[in-house]
Prior knowledge:
By secondary structure, the protein is of the alpha/beta class. The chain has eleven helices and 14 strands. Helix 2 packs parallel to helix 3 (101-109) and helix 3 runs parallel beside helix 4 (126-136).
Amino acid sequence: MSRDGLLVDSHGRVMRDLRISVTDRCNFRCLYCLPETEAAFNFYRGRWAKLPKSTPIVRQWAPRSHILTFEEIERVVRLAVQMGIDKIRLTGGEPLLRQELERLVEKLARIEGIRDLAMTTNGFHFEQKAVALRDAGLRRVSFSLDSLDRSNFLKITGRDGLGQVLTGIRLAQEMELHPVKINAVIIKGINDHEIEALAEFGQQNGLSFRFIEFMPLDSARVWLRELVVPAEEILARLQRRFDLRPVVRDRSSETARRWAFAGGSGEIGLIAPVSQPFCGHCNRLRLTADGHLRTCLFSLKEHDLRSPLRSGASDDALKAYLQEVVWQKEARHHIGEPDFVAPQRSMSCIGG
Length: 352
């Protein structure tokens, strides 16, 4: 279960990446994650008749007392880094809803051994927090941007916030939080008509633009395989429009296959968990805001870390527990297979 104290699973994969949800709350209500309004559901049903006539909206936010403190997160990260984790990403929900997030960033930035300290955000509040986060030690930031059309952005996210997100992206570039990455979840009939425009936006602004296949992680349980736009289809369309050159991966565990724009700046990446699973090289763990470890984005089982943290467990005991949990990491997910069961919690609660 251990290779020189590293976090190794039963399939020989060494964990290097820990994604930490600092809150399960989000100020957006994206169709692929937390659709909240009857209008949003009608928008779905109007396009796809296979959806059930009635889909309940269930919200079960974690009580504040269950949310890990900054000190608890710092302790987990410090131990995980001692066991080989070198990449930390802060997520949510929407991480910028967590008050004084810069204090956590400052704590983590002081931990020796972290190669990459990044954050994923919807960008709505980034302008207010950007300087404090950079000064605290944040090195990189990724933004979610599923549409460049204000009306479509509103339909997808439930919020009229495109201007704020674009401002946040520009600010991150000015502050040299490079590379600035942009994530777009592509859904057939919703925003697949914008694929070329999104890529051009990345090219013109020197961004690393990621196209992500629609995954079954929405709270409304409306995911259907036919709503997925396969990565190969996205690539074929982009290659007809742009001169793209393959980029060699820095690590085999990278989720994105990447292409650079010939003769220009920026690049595009394709993340294809549905059509081209990359489980064989997965080196990720996820820590939910309420202190549960997940060994796969689609895990049906979570491992309670909050209880031992708060019951006086020693560092050695916590390390042994981490090793035990990692050893149980799934070989792969089962999206699209007959026995696939979606996790109970949506992406907002799991942490991206």
